[in-house]
């Protein structure tokens, strides 16, 4: 879904002939903003691309990102990319679009190279930067950019979208609070996913008496082929632990007994929440997933002590 803020700001920039050379798209962690990036590229290039697939990308568009397998947010990659673009032939008057996804993950050397390029931009170059952590973006980059806030849909808005996905009401309630948007729901869930939620709730209840029960349950999903399942369960677990700070009426009636037990336990649920939240925040970085997952599980058990 294209952000309304992106549409409004870009259209006004074009209409008033005040197009910026650098836009910084600020979005919450986990929110997929490819549709907004694609909209900007199509609008600026008068094109009709259907995706950000590099194989079908326009020759005047470069995309730099750390996709987990290849990080081209490094100085040598950036410099080589700009040298290549300067030697390429473009349609006269066509904008050169350079996209940097999750710019906060770039190396310091890469950021300094990027800053130099942004400070002395060519008239026909537009930069589109994205970030899930605005506090880690250099102030000098922020000051030279127009920041566009892209907000996740509300729980109610996402729930409405999920009604068209042939899901039960209980699953819709859970997913609309766990996930940032519909793209994330489709990435992490399948027909068996809500059964895993049920199994997780059972593990949480049993772990109140034996904290190792939750560890054993979650550790089954720390293998390479079940990474997304583990992340999905971590998001669900964080949501369940957050119930203790909500009004009793927030939870569905069938979770009332578990909610009472959670509110009466003596171990540090707040620390459990923070441990899971810290783990989820590094999922778009180069951190070793398996080491971080094990570290999270150990800290959870320690919080139960």
TrEMBL record:
<dbReference type="Pfam" id="PF13177">
    <property type="entry name" value="DNA_pol3_delta2"/>
</dbReference>
<dbReference type="InterPro" id="IPR050238">
    <property type="entry name" value="DNA_Rep/Repair_Clamp_Loader"/>
</dbReference>
<dbReference type="GO" id="GO:0006261">
    <property type="term" value="P:DNA-templated DNA replication"/>
</dbReference>
<dbReference type="InterPro" id="IPR027417">
    <property type="entry name" value="P-loop_NTPase"/>
</dbReference>
<protein>
    <submittedName>
        <fullName>DNA polymerase III subunit delta</fullName>
    </submittedName>
</protein>
